[in-house]
């Protein structure tokens, strides 16, 4: 594994502060809009709704920029996605350009931030998915996802297992209010032999894997609270462990696990790969 240059290390150390700054500006603009345009002063006390509005503004403005430099391993992996798929938390759909539309039979994009839906539909069309891609205003938690899929006719009786050939989860597990419950639900919805394809930024693997950085781990803890508040995302979530134990302890729910850390030395390390549900 190549060692990072000083420039690379410094950039990754300060990048979270830069993005927090951008998100703070969108928070201020959101508050100004609520006070002077909407004049809905009661909304000022609804912090979850304000966070949703502010994140919608932030991602509409910077989502494409933040998604532009995806690693080649991720883009190659996304190009292999096929069949009937569940695209979880696609945001504005900036990753859809990496899908091979010819391999996809039907796709359901579940995105809870409604302000992102117009751009998501536009990017689905640009990616050649067109009528194949259905946008659902729902989160990944079971009480939101299951009714939305039932309403869309995916689940005839409002519940079920083994519906999707592949489930794609890209940079959204850290946003989910109930990531474990959401993953358990996705596991049930995945067909035996189906894949869960993922790319997530995760906690720095210092002490667990060669290449982790103690300094970067400390920086994550420094950034964790402002990052979660302004960007609505958990910076130091142990997503690898969570994925590994979905469907059974010690990876027993999966027949194959192919997960790799990218830039494990970084303040924003990433985990990319896929897991195959046991038949």
UniProtKB/TrEMBL annotation:
Entry keyword Transferase: yes
Keywords: Membrane, Methyltransferase, Transferase, Transmembrane, Transmembrane helix
InterPro entries membership: SAM-dependent_MTases_sf, Thiol_S-MT
Gene Ontology annotations of biological process type: methylation
Family matches, as Pfam families: Methyltransf_23 (PF13489)
Superkingdom of the source species: Eukaryota
Xref: PANTHER family: METHYLTRANSFERASE LIKE 7A, METHYLTRANSFERASE LIKE 7B
Name this protein carries in UniProt: S-adenosyl-L-methionine-dependent methyltransferase
Recorded GO MF terms: methyltransferase activity
The species this protein was found in: Phyllosticta capitalensis
Residue ranges of the TM segments: 15-36
